């Protein structure tokens, strides 16, 4: 196990250059008739043709979409019944998987460096860079005995895998959760009703800059509101509230603003909200408004400079830069490929945001799981 893990740690240091391409066609118009020129016809045919502005990597065998946990620098981490494995999917020769754990992992952090797994009833954290494992405390020391199996869910609450969130199973409607800081072993038991009367929540909790973000339904008729809890001062404050607010996905930004997709003030699309001023900018909007309709899904790069935008109606994916509160340099990277998953579930960004991988997920039938047979690697910069 030690040698295998050492092999994997060495792989983490490998830098692989990625490539991508895009094309923009020009239009010509005949002034003497209403007939389209051959150039325009070619552009139209090109627009309708499938587009994949990246390198297609075919897997040795199809995998359940939920079993692919991470792809970084060409190394894919995935589960099977025998455990957690790593394999270089960019190796053109014989691909030999290496087993990292003798049991499937629960989750891999977004940066691909930490693994959450279970040993019996206890949760453990594996650091892939150091090769060291440690038990994750889910209750304060000296607390009456219980175990993590009393939790409905446990997962990473941040991109780096520092914080682990536990959601208690038998008191789910009471809103009891626990956050563990794996660096300090500090445990934060949280009862949501101590701060606000809840009517439900989505479990899409995130820790960002030492604050816990909480999408909560606070009364009948309100689809969702977002609050944050400072884990040091224990200050609980609203981020955004509204009777006509529904967030399908959200991401706090380093400048204090909030990026989210969903519905707000009778618009459906992608929004940038400033809690300090209450100003909300519509970055993208679908023409027709329909309650509950979600046309876009997004995935933000770790450095917050680029956004992948999945148009679920037209079945295309584009990338854009986020500069000064606006989307610029938007270009298509995928078109004509049906996706049976949200872009945030099938995308793996490099930590510097310069490249990313997208798992191509397919529906193999009503009784089968969503399957991934190919992964595409892209270069983010145009």
Structure description:
The protein is mainly beta and 382 residues long. It is 7% helix and 46% strand. It is built from three helices and 29 strands. The chain has helices at residues 2-12, 38-48, 343-346; strands at 51-52, 55-64, 68-72, 75-80, 83-88, 98-101, 107-108, 114-119, 122-127, 133-135, 151-156, 163-168, 176-181, 186-191, 206-208, 211-216, 225-230, 236-240, 246-252, 258-264, 267-274, 279-285, 296-300, 306-311, 316-323, 326-335, 347-349, 355-363, 370-379. Strands 1-26-25-24-23 form a five-stranded antiparallel sheet, with no helix packed on it. A four-stranded antiparallel sheet has the order 2-29-28-27. It is globular, with a radius of gyration of 23 Å. It starts with a helix and ends with a strand. The relative contact order is 0.12.
Could you give the order of strands across the largest sheet? 1-26-25-24-23
Ranges where pLDDT stays below 50 over 5 or more residues in a row are 1-46, 142-149
Percentage of residues in helical conformation: under 10%
**Would you tell me the structural class of the helices and strands?**
mainly beta
Q: How far apart, in Å, are the first and last alpha carbons?
A: 41 Å
Strand content: over 45%
Rounded mean pLDDT score: 80
User: How many alpha or pi helices?
Assistant: 3
What gross morphology would you assign?
globular
Instruction: Please report the total strand number as a whole number.
Output: 29
User: What Rg is obtained from the alpha carbons, in whole angstroms?
Assistant: 23 Å
The major β-sheet equals: 5 strands, antiparallel
């Amino acid at each position: 196990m030690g040698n295998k893990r050492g092999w994997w740690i060495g792989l983490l240091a490998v830098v692989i250059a990625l490539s991508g391409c895009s094309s923009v066609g020009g239009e010509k118009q005949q002034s003497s008739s209403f007939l389209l020129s051959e150039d325009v016809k070619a552009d139209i045919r090109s627009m309708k043709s499938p587009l994949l502005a990246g390198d297609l990597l075919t897997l040795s065998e199809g995998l359940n979409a939920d079993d692919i946990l991470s792809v970084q620098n060409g190394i894919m981490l995935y589960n099977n019944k025998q455990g957690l494995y790593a394999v270089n999917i960019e190796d053109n020769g014989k691909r030999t998987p290496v087993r990292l754990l003798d049991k499937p992992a629960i989750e891999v952090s977004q940066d691909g460096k930490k693994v959450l797994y279970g040993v019996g009833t206890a949760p453990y954290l594996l650091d892939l860079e150091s090769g060291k494992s440690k038990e994750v405390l889910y209750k304060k020391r000296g607390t009456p005995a219980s175990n993590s199996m009393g939790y409905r869910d446990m997962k990473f609450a941040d991109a780096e895998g520092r914080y682990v969130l536990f959601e208690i199973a038998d008191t789910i409607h009471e809103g009891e959760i626990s956050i563990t800081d794996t660096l300090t072993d500090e445990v934060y038991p949280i009862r949501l009703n101590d701060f606000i009367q809840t009517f439900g929540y989505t479990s899409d909790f995130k820790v960002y800059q030492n604050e816990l973000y909480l999408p909560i339904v606070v009364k009948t008729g309100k689809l969702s509101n977002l609050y944050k809890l400072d884990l040091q001062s224990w200050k609980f404050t609203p981020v955004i509230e509204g009777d006509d607010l529904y967030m399908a996905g959200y991401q706090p930004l380093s400048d204090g603003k909030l990026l989210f997709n969903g519905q707000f003030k009778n618009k459906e699309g992608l929004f940038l909200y400033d809690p300090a001023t209450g100003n909300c900018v519509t970055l993208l909007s679908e023409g027709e408004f329909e309650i509950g309709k979600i046309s876009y899904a997004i995935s933000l790069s770790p450095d917050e400079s680029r956004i992948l935008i999945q148009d679920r109606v037209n079945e295309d994916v584009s990338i854009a830069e986020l500069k000064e509160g606006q989307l610029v340099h938007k270009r298509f990277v995928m078109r004509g490929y049906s996706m049976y998953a949200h872009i945030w579930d099938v995308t793996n960004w490099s930590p510097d945001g310069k490249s990313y991988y997208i798992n191509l997920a397919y529906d193999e039938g009503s009784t089968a799981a969503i399957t991934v047979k190919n992964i595409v690697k892209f270069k983010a910069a145009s």
